[in-house]
From TrEMBL:
It holds the Pfam family 2-Hacid_dh_C. It is an enzyme of class 1 (oxidoreductase). This is D-3-phosphoglycerate dehydrogenase. The keyword Oxidoreductase applies. Belongs to the D-isomer specific 2-hydroxyacid dehydrogenase family. Its EC number is 1.1.1.399, 1.1.1.95. It comes from Dysosmobacter segnis. Gene3D superfamilies: 3.30.70.260, NAD(P)-binding Rossmann-like Domain.
Length: 389
């Protein structure tokens, strides 16, 4: 039985993909071999030696200590694109809310009724406080043209917006999916100076922390509306509050509220709702469970954010999965041990990523436990697993 601990509420659509005869799954599972998580913070978690892999049902992995996991031979999986549509729809909603102060307008109507006024007699006079611009023919700047940014771009084009995108690492696949009317700029200042709306769709890392700071805001158009459904830490809150105060930024719509931000009138804050649709929760859970199972049962690494991607069709009778440091001589060191035992290698794959590498070896006959122990003891080997079929 594999033991899987859930660290957040995971959609049953995903959980039901674990066969009950093979998996014990739950939030109270002890010494798990797999962890399923959404946004729970695992940064300070001490990993149990039994832990083999972590699957993030989502895409932001700033809640997981990726380097520490890689060093311990724990692949971390994410679910690329699985929640992109949900976020895209909320971005469009955020632009509309920020333009026409829809949350303020709804609040005002309720306040009238609560204060005993007959609402129907005041709406026509009161509504002038909520006039705001249309999106049509306005300019949207998108920072990050990955799974979310690219579909936000295409949808905004279909709404009649002029779209500028900035992504220094734009993949060929994404570039091909972008509407041909999207202007991809090399200098982010070209986006800042033109945009009436700016939305960011990048990961939060050391490099993107406070990317939207006082200098970035100073390069923007006065009255810009900024949408942040990526991560709170990408924006310098103090700089944003100053810009809201001076009118440099007309509205800040964020999925990452904090008490300090809520002191400002032009902040529209939501409780991290970007991916909160049944469709997205189901997609993420199903993909996370499938990648986790594929690794536990077959050793395949797909959608990993910290170790090499590698899949190999099953062959032979036994598979050794060896996570090791990316240093010369490892393949020869490992395979020589099988030869010594007279075992034939049916198939072999090896891939590296940064400081780490992964080798999968399918064997024509079973090797003895002593050989597996020797592989484990080989210098620079981090983890060895043996799977049989
Ligand atoms: N609010 C939510 O519920 C919610 C839901 C999903 C994702 N997110 C956030 O959105 C982020 C992006 O998700 P995604 O699925 O689009 O990821 P993605 O990996 O598909 O896209 C990220 C893009 O950012 C680009 N990039 C990296 N550094 C950049 C930089 N300095 N400037 C511009 N572009 C840069 C990459 O090249 C990539 O194309 C996630 O990391 C997560 O933090 C939030
Ligand atoms: O799990 C969630 O609800 C949010 C996930 C989202 O922030 C992500 O990064 O994928």
């Amino acid at each position: 039985m594999y033991r899987i601990q859930t660290m957040n509420k995971i959609s049953p659509v995903g959980l039901n993909r674990f066969p009950s005869e093979l998996y014990e799954v739950g939030d109270a599972v002890q010494d798990p071999q797999g962890i399923l998580v959404r946004s729970a913070k695992l940064l300070d978690l001490e990993f149990n030696p039994s832990l083999l892999a972590i699957a993030r049902a989502g895409v932001g992995v700033n809640n997981i200590p990726l380097d520490r996991c890689a060093a311990a031979g724990i692949p971390v999986f994410s679910t690329p694109g699985a929640n992109a549509n949900a976020v895209k729809e909320l971005v469009i909603c955020a632009m509309l809310m920020g333009s026409r102060d829809i949350p303020g307008a709804i609040r005002w109507v309720r306040e009238q009724a609560a204060s005993g006024v007959d609402v129907s007699t005041v709406v026509e006079k009161g509504k002038s406080a909520f006039i705001g611009p249309e999106l049509y023919k306005k300019t949207l700047g998108i920072i990050g043209l990955g799974a979310i940014g690219s579909i936000v771009a295409n949808t905004a084009i279909s709404l009649g917006m002029d779209v500028y995108g900035y992504d220094p690492f734009l993949s060929v696949d994404t570039a091909l999916r972008l509407d041909r009317h999207v202007h991809v700029v090399k200098d982010i200042n070209d986006l800042y100076k033109r945009s009436d709306y700016i939305t960011m769709h990048i990961h939060y890392t050391e490099k993107t922390a406070h990317m939207i700071d006082a200098d970035a805001i100073a390069a923007m158009k006065r009255g810009v509306r900024v949408i942040n459904l990526a991560r709170g830490e990408i924006v310098d809150d103090e700089a944003m509050l100053t810009a809201l105060d001076t009118g440099m930024v007309a509205a800040y719509i964020t999925d990452f509220p904090n008490n300090r931000l809520l002191t400002a009138p032009h902040v529209i804050a939501m409780p991290h709702l970007g991916a909160s649709t049944p469709e997205s929760e189901q997609n993420c859970a199903a993909m996370a469970v499938d990648t986790l199972r594929d690794y536990l049962e077959s050793g395949n690494i797909r959608s990993s954010v910290n170790l090499p991607e590698m899949t190999m069709d099953r062959s032979g009778v036994q598979r050794l999965c060896v996570l090791h440091k990316n240093v010369p001589g490892m393949l020869a060191n490992i395979t020589s041990l099988f030869g010594r035992d007279g075992v034939n290698v049916e198939n072999l794959s090896n891939k590296s990523r940064g400081d780490y590498a992964y080798t999968m070896v399918d064997l024509g006959s079973k090797v003895g436990d002593n050989v597996i122990e020797d592989v484990r003891r080989t210098a620079n080997v981090i983890r060895v697993r043996s799977l049989e079929w």
